[in-house]
Amino acid sequence: MTADLSQIVKAYDVRGVVPDQWDEPLAELFGAAFVQVTGADAIVIGHDMRPSSPGLSAAFARGAANRGADVTLIGLCSTDQLYFASGRLGLPGAMFTASHNPAQYNGIKMCRAGAAPIGQDTGLTEIRTLAETWSASGAPAPAATPGTITETDTLVDYAAHLKSLVDLTAIRPLKVVVDAGNGMGGHTVPTVFAGLPLDLVPMYFELDGTFPNHEANPLDPANIVDLQERVRAEGADLGLAFDGDADRCFVVDERGEPVSPSAITALVAARELAKHPGGTIIHNLITSWSVPEVVRETGGTPVRTRVGHSFIKAEMARTGAIFGGEHSAHYYFRDFWNADTGMLAALHVLAALGGQDRPLSSLVAAYDRYTGSGEINSTVEDQAASTAAVRAAFASREGVTVDELDGLTVSAPTWWFNLRPSNTEPLLRLNVEAKDEVTMSKIRDEVLALVRTS
């Protein structure tokens, strides 16, 4: 009987509880399927600090080598370090991580050569089908000539590449608190920040995939409380928080206040446009109005996309965009193979702050022009009916426009909101933005009343 892997093969990656939902024998089959689908004769593999990661990545390597592919293991790394290796070496890659998920989870993020993403529509469905088939019938026969498995370290080259993309030579000394959340930022930050005029205050740099201090998910405000307190206590210039696999970076200003990822997107966009005048910037449809405004003001072309890294990366490739940003603190760079790297965004923030004398709160004020609700989730049994009720209530109002690029977006001269369903849960996600707090609260409450009573 063919196994059903639908619960662990998601839209963009493999992710599930180990060993309940997947284990090393299954990882070996994924490795063999990855080689067969990509047609690769060589691949690169990295892993995070979770207890199950070394064993799972080694099993994947065995499966790949048995199909004839030469395997380069880069060991402990952040996800963007794996993308760097894929880009620099020109090899398909696999990263073993479950990002910010709890300790019992693990997963695989896969890409083709040059860090091109693999998702359900670009090979992941075929990989799943092969792994399901082989889990029932047995592993495929080994190749006539198995591949080799070798180890190399790419951390120093990764750090050098990032620092080659941002001029940090003339910045003033800065005191920066970094909360690595016991994730891979504790491995990469010391090397990337080495040689810079930074007074680094490390928090939770010990690699520990059981996350003893807090979840490595800075998108949840509860997980940056320690960082906020430490920034204030140290009198630091800023704070940085990385998620578990250190591909996302969140910023806290000198007052301990979170800086909106939209403001960071706008700031980095302006800096990238200074290097590449007239370039295209990608932003998803729930980033702030500030982002396209700043892009236009600095001579660039903003392009709006659906939420999700596959849409961002596809639009970057289609348009030749120089940079892309999401509300979730994923930042994508043409100079980084269109892949996302929170570390490069962090270096841009350090360069911008260190290149002038104002505090970070003053610097980012120009990029943070509106009041947002943040993402509000509501459990809804009939997502379509609730969305239709909201649409009916707003669509006929004067001055209102409606679009359905991704869920329902309703816009007016002084506010907008987006209501979109979760792909995996019975949830509707609401984001509201307005020119002032009173308007934002009024629209937010009106939409939520409709969603939660319809």
UniProtKB/TrEMBL annotation:
Keywords tagged on the record: Isomerase, Magnesium, Metal-binding, Phosphoprotein
Keyword Isomerase: yes
InterPro entries: A-D-PHexomutase_a/b/a-I, A-D-PHexomutase_a/b/a-I/II/III, A-D-PHexomutase_a/b/a-II, A-D-PHexomutase_a/b/a-III, A-D-PHexomutase_C, A-D-PHexomutase_C_sf, Alpha-D-phosphohexomutase_SF
Entry keyword annotation includes Metal-binding: yes
Top-level taxon of origin: Bacteria
Residue stretches making up the Alpha-D-phosphohexomutase alpha/beta/alpha domain: 7-133, 157-256, 264-370
Domain Alpha-D-phosphohexomutase C-terminal: 375-449
Cofactor(s) the protein needs: Mg(2+)
Family affiliation: Belongs to the phosphohexose mutase family.
PANTHER family listed in its UniProt record: PHOSPHOMANNOMUTASE
Protein name in UniProt: Phosphomannomutase/phosphoglucomutase
Natural source organism: Streptomyces coeruleoprunus
